[in-house]
Amino acid sequence: MANEKIFPLTKEQVDEIAKKYPTPFHIYDEKKIRENLRTLKNAFAWAPAFKEHYAVKAAPNPSLLQIMKDEDAGTDCSSLPELLLSEAVGITGEEIMLTSNDTPIDEFQKALELGAIINLDDITHIEYLEKNARLPKCLSFRYNPGDLIEGNDIIGKPTEAKYGLTKEQIFNAYRIAKEKGIKRFGLHTMVISNELRNEGFLLTAKIMFELAAEIKKELGIDFEFVNLGGGFGVAYRPEESPVDFKFVGEGIKELYYKIFEPLNMTTTAIKTESGRFITGPAGFLVSKAIHEKHTYKDYIGLDSCMANLMRPALYGAYHHITVPGKENLPLDHTYDVVGSLCENNDKFAIDRKLPKIDIGDYVVIHDAGAHGHAMGFNYNGKLRSAELLLKENGEVKLIRRAETVDDYFATLKFDGGIM
Hints:
This protein is of the alpha/beta class. It folds into two domains: about 30-275, TIM Barrel (Alpha-Beta Barrel); about 280-410, Beta Barrel (Lyase, Ornithine Decarboxylase, Chain A, domain 1), CATH 2.40.37. The chain has helices at about 10-20, 30-45, 60-70, 80-90, 105-115, 125-130, 165-180, 200-220, 245-260, 275-280, 310-315, 405-410; strands at about 25-30, 50-55, 75, 95-100, 115-120, 140-145, 185-190, 225, 270, 285-295, 300, 320, 335-340, 345-355, 360-365, 385-390, 395-400. Strands 1, 10, 11, 12, 13, 14, 15, 16 and 17 form a nine-stranded mixed beta sheet that branches. Strands 2-3-4-5-6-7-8-9 form an eight-stranded parallel beta barrel, surrounded by six helices. Strand 13 and strand 14 form a beta hairpin. Helix 8 runs parallel beside helix 9. The N and C termini lie far apart (about 55 Å).
């Protein structure tokens, strides 16, 4: 297998965990998260300075952000609560980048209070920020390269994406910011998501380095950093090959020195904002089979649903499934693995070859550690599950309790309300 899918717990261990924390629950492997962070850092160890700003939206939990802080990663935030989560674990100042869009002023104000790097999504935000708050000491703009890059199904084609500035706009934006007295600058893009093609990251780097060089030649701006975004994909299918970070790191290094050395720009730092690659493969949704149905197809019904993991329904995304205790049995049954939501697309897998599943078996959905629990919702009155952390010493720690019915009704309890 190009990429073997291994769940780090035995059936017996899950039995013990489930006695205290009933299924369904999300569980994250701390060791794997740290390994992924170090893989990324090692790929850019050649850079004059490198900083990974973990994309908080992927898994917004303070216990996970504490691991990021321990590993010297900052955060990429796109909302006020994400800024507050960063602050709660001691990630402040320029360890934070605010990269939001259609941004309300309270997000800008909190980011300024924390001393974060502001990364603007539109040229009009310069005036909006100056009028409603103030301009920061360090300013970055998000570049949309248009038809220079294909994009993909998740993030869309750049020419149709709502994000970023055109090339003409970005030159004007830096010119305006410089005239307003800004002296420190960065440059940012984010144009691919869940990408496994190694060459795609090299193309992004080439475009960004060439743009930074052009801006320096025309406007005399020395960039403190170039943020290449995230987009490092997860090999969700066992037959897929993961990103080759050694190849990517060496390829970007070659481009960096080729483009920047002639212009004396080799003090420019490199930043990334990976989320999916860091926690995605380290997270699992653990459910239990509670129903079996045989009509026109064979169904296995779980005690979780798309409220716990939306990606298969939203994107048609593949997530590998294993059954603890049955890892070595033949895959001789074909099932649709479903949840209880009143929506026909509430399916974790369609026509999936699996071992025979019996009522009460645990069903583990792999690579659910990014954009999994974070995208949960309460439609149909579904309650969000607990999050657990499998620590490096083998201890299992609760890092978010499961929602209760009282939580669900909390916003309906107010003076004059029916509840």
